[in-house]
């Protein structure tokens, strides 16, 4: 799957330990850089080259792009850690515990998914009963929501799994405050308390947590395969590949992963994660594990084949060097599907109608 995507082949070489075998002098670096930049993976590719002490083998002109992307990634990580400390300062005063999510969590935990990981927003999880206290504490420290319209405020606060994004007045940094990982109106019903029960506490910072390694995988899988956003889908697949290799494959923890997915009512997104990290990046996942996930997710052969076709197109790079026929249709279908999964019919159709009208009239939406 996606065999003709150069950035995919590069990531596979790294995972297979064969990156040293490529022809550095004639390698199509320009195409790799363009595809990797489009998918927000340039810093990660650069990190891999640097980690294996291969960067000096890259010709001078493309090497400059890799060096600059490493500098950007390092600066991003430093800024993220500063931002987490500021969030911690605000919330610890209010005695509100919180869990770091996604990119900020990878950087803070220092796991393999932090390698060259770029992100802009800081995502955190707080208990729903502490949501008002947390929002007030953050507002008192300079984070404010933008002046969103009444509908959007209602959309976030009644139906979504997070409050409207908060932006710091001085630093212009954004924080997304979640009270669960998917909208409460969704068909899947993971209980937030279960994530809290196995979260890992940060050293010397009481009240700050990151998800357990297995729950990081499950959350990443759910975010990618439940939200319907694919512009950076290949980067998220790379995240999953690194997380799975580090936390599961290295310890043969497949039973624990599948058991936890069942416990959290998130088997289907975990199946998709296992299936597509193996098919796209050749992650070392046994076929019997994928078959068990299919069985637990109660997916028919038709479902499996249909989603292979759709996600196989939706997760492509969407770059001029790799235009894939049918990608737009696949992404549209999965976008509609994501809303179907998140919202009951009486909310879904008015919401989609409103979004379509705003797009047609050129107005902004949340």
What's the structural blueprint in terms of helices and strands?
Layout: H1 6-16, H2 29-38, H3 42-51, H4 60-93, E1 98-101, H5 102-109, E2 122-125, H6 131-140, E3 143-145, H7 150-159, E4 166-168, E5 174-178, H8 192-197, E6 200-201, E7 208-210, H9 213-227, H10 233-247, H11 254-263, H12 267-281, H13 287-296, H14 301-314, H15 327-342, H16 345-361
Parallel strand pairs: 1-7, 2-5
Antiparallel strand pairs: 1-2, 3-4, 4-5, 6-7
Helix pairs in contact: 3-4, 4-6, 9-10, 9-12, 10-12, 11-13, 12-13, 14-15
In the sheet with the most strands, the strands line up as 3-4-5-2-1-7-6
What is the approximate shape? globular
- Which quaternary structure do these chains form? single chain
Instruction: Give the structural class.
Output: alpha/beta
Low-confidence stretches: none
Query: N- to C-terminal separation?
Result: 34 Å
Could you walk me through the main structural features you see in this protein, from its secondary elements to its overall organization?
With 366 residues, the chain is α/β, with parallel strands linked by helices. The protein has one domain. It is 58% helix and 7% strand. It is built from 16 helices and 7 strands. The protein has a 7-stranded mixed sheet with strand order 3-4-5-2-1-7-6. β4 and β5 form a beta hairpin. α3 packs across α4, α4 packs across α6 and α9 runs antiparallel to α10. The longest helix has 34 residues. The chain starts with 5 loop residues before the first helix and ends in a 5-residue tail after the last helix. The mean pLDDT is 92.
């Amino acid at each position: 799957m996606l065999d003709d995507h150069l950035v995919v082949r590069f990531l596979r070489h790294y995972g297979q330990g064969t990156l040293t075998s490529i022809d550095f002098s004639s390698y199509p670096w320009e195409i790799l850089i363009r595809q990797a930049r489009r998918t927000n993976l340039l810093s990660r590719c650069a990190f891999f080259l640097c980690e294996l002490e291969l960067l000096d083998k890259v010709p001078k002109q493309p090497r400059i792009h890799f060096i600059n992307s490493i500098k950007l990634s390092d600066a991003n990580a430093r800024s993220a850690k500063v931002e987490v400390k500021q969030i911690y300062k605000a919330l610890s005063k209010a005695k509100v515990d919180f869990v770091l999510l996604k990119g900020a969590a990878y950087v803070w935990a220092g796991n393999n998914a932090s390698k060259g990981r770029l992100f802009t927003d800081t995502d955190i999880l707080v208990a729903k009963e502490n949501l008002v206290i947390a929002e007030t504490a953050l507002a008192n420290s300079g984070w404010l929501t933008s002046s969103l319209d009444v509908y959007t405020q209602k959309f976030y606060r009644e139906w979504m799994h997070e409050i409207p994004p908060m932006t710091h007045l001085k630093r212009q940094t954004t924080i997304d405050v979640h009270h669960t990982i998917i909208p409460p109106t969704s068909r899947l019903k993971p209980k937030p308390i279960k994530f809290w029960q196995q979260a890992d506490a940060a050293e010397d910072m009481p009240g700050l947590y990151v998800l357990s390694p297995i729950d990081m995988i499950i959350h990443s899988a759910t975010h990618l395969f439940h939200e319907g956003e694919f512009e950076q889908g290949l980067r998220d697949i790379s995240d999953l590949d690194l997380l799975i290799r580090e936390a599961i494959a290295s310890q043969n923890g497949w039973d624990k992963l599948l058991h936890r997915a069942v416990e959290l009512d998130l088997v289907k997104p975990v199946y998709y994660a296992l299936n597509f990290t193996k098919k796209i990046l050749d992650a070392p996942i046994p076929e019997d594990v994928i078959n068990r996930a299919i069985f637990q997710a109660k997916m028919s052969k038709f479902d499996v084949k249909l989603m292979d076709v759709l996600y196989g197109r939706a997760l492509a790079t969407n770059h001029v060097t790799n235009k894939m026929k049918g990608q737009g249709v696949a992404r549209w279908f999965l976008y509609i599907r994501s809303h179907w999964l998140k919202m009951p019919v009486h909310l879904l159709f008015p919401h989609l109608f409103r979004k379509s009208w705003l797009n047609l009239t050129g107005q902004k939406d949340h």
